[in-house]
């Protein structure tokens, strides 16, 4: 049981705007992937900065780390834009649902990249957002703004990709 | 010739001792005291102290880093580094914790022991936590 009132309460303490979010749900607790990997729909490795000559690497047990497409060796908005434009995403103006497009968003706090989320595109959750919170839970949330917090700052840059 | 009108106070440390008696054929008998039995068990003290220290470090580290996606930020946290500094004393405590809840805390075992249990095939964090528990418990 993941989506318990205790677990929900723990998350809401850190992300208070989820309190009023009717779509807020805890759906996974796997430590096997992080938010950047999840934004790219990868669930068996962490995507994190890594020197180019070491990519991909298993530095620690149980986690393969990659920073694909020769991205700069930094956890930054510039590196994330490099990776996601390499995945055929392009910058767009907002996180509103658009049929036929996948969307992701980069969060920044004090000008530094902190987090990414992605919009779901099928099933009953179509149009709502999904975030892997570091090594902790994966959650659903109605809008990118509902994760505004001292941890992640604010959603800053939206990108979209045609599914056709 | 100096004349001493008072002496400095005499600081004394009082200790209370409770003496247990027993009666043998109507006579009150003071048992012979084995003073060695009164010495604090060092192993027990160490175990309780280390467990408490580890739990504080672990919970603070988890609170500080659970939402971070940067491996550097996770392992460079001061509390994680203190767990590393506990050395081999931390190993059984880490094993207990990753058995209860598999997590990236397992990376501390790689750093403390210098060992990796990753085999040729791919393993997830959850897989490897189980492997470490099995390896440690034999």
Which stretches of chain A of 5+ consecutive residues score pLDDT under 50?
none
Total helices of chain B: the number is 6
Q: Tell the overall outline of chain B.
A: elongated
Terminal CA distance of chain A: 37 Å
Helix fraction bin of chain A: 10-25%
**Separate helix tally of chain A:** 3
Largest sheet of chain B: 2 strands, antiparallel
The counted number of beta strands of chain B is: 2
Strand content of chain A: 25-35%
Order of H and E elements of chain A: HEHEEEHEEEEEE
- The helix content of chain B is 40-55%
Structural class of chain A, by secondary structure, is: alpha+beta
Average pLDDT of chain A? 93
User: What's the end-to-end separation of chain B, in Å?
Assistant: 81 Å
State the low-pLDDT regions of chain B, or none: none
**What is the gyration radius of chain A calculated from CA atoms?**
15 Å
Q: Globular, elongated, flat, extended or rod-shaped: what is the shape of chain A?
A: globular
N-to-C SSE string of chain B, H for helix and E for strand? EEHHHHHH
